[in-house]
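tool_call: predict_structure(chain=1)
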Amino acid sequence: MLQIFILYSLLQPLHWKRLKASLIFELQEVAGHKAGKGKLGPLVDDSGCFYKPYQCDDRGSKEVAFYTSFSSNTKIPDHIRRFFPVFYGTKLVEASDGSGLSPHIVLQDLVSNRNNPSIMDIKIGARTWYPQASDDYIERCFQKDRETTTSLLGFRISGLQIYENKESGFWKPVKKLVQAFNVEDVRLVLRKFVSSNSPTDSNSVPDCSFAPSVYGGSSGILAQLLELKEWFEVQTIYNLNSCSVLMVYEKESLLKGTSPGAEIKLVDFAHVIEGTGIIDHNFLGGLCSLIKIISEILTGPDEHTNKACLQDMEKNSVIDNGTNK
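tool_result:
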């Protein structure tokens, strides 16, 4: 049935002339699949849609299967749906390399209504592979998890851009530098993300002056993460392997005295599997670790919250020790 749905979606007619005129390269992508070296990159249009190239191996079909399931699942609370991009199906559009029509997953463009957004992509979980994966894939993920902060922190930064000003534009460290972040680098970057001083100035200490407005408050990033955590403490529908939390806000709005529009979204669902009645301790543990660090940036360690988070991380550690190679 899923294969029939995918084929039907891909064959639906398009208003091709309108799409061809409005599709442009996605310039705000901070991690994931970018155009270049034989790889297709994402596209956006002027109606608020994001076109993610459909991966021809089973990752593409698995991601479509997740979005299809999630969109129609009546057990997902409405307040949780806002943390996921809206799914519009699949479409054939001109590929980013101009090679012709290619299938794309059509999603909500998360930054279409933002000017110069600061963005951070954080891959959640102490492991990024899933049990049904091939031995070769597990080995590659296992090595990368150990070489980054994934195993130590329960998450790693996959990419980021921090807006400085009109003159300097964005600080967007290259992938190789981001992959080399150690635990202290991650803590530092999470502080730089909400600081007014330049992220490239190695002689200055991040002032975290934007932290109360971006991380804090009743609708800030920390509050959103805690809301998401409450759901993951009970949901057993999905195991979100190798998924990311995307954090976004606008510095310019903040400087003008308006809301920075701080928001989180979950992205990348090519390796999601059914939960089969089991809590996703891997994702939950990584989420708790991120919550702990952001809490410390705001107010210092919270003994009660951190204890609960550490317990989740310990459960996850026990599970992984039984399944890791």
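agent: The first strand starts at residue 24 and ends at 25. Proceeding to next step.
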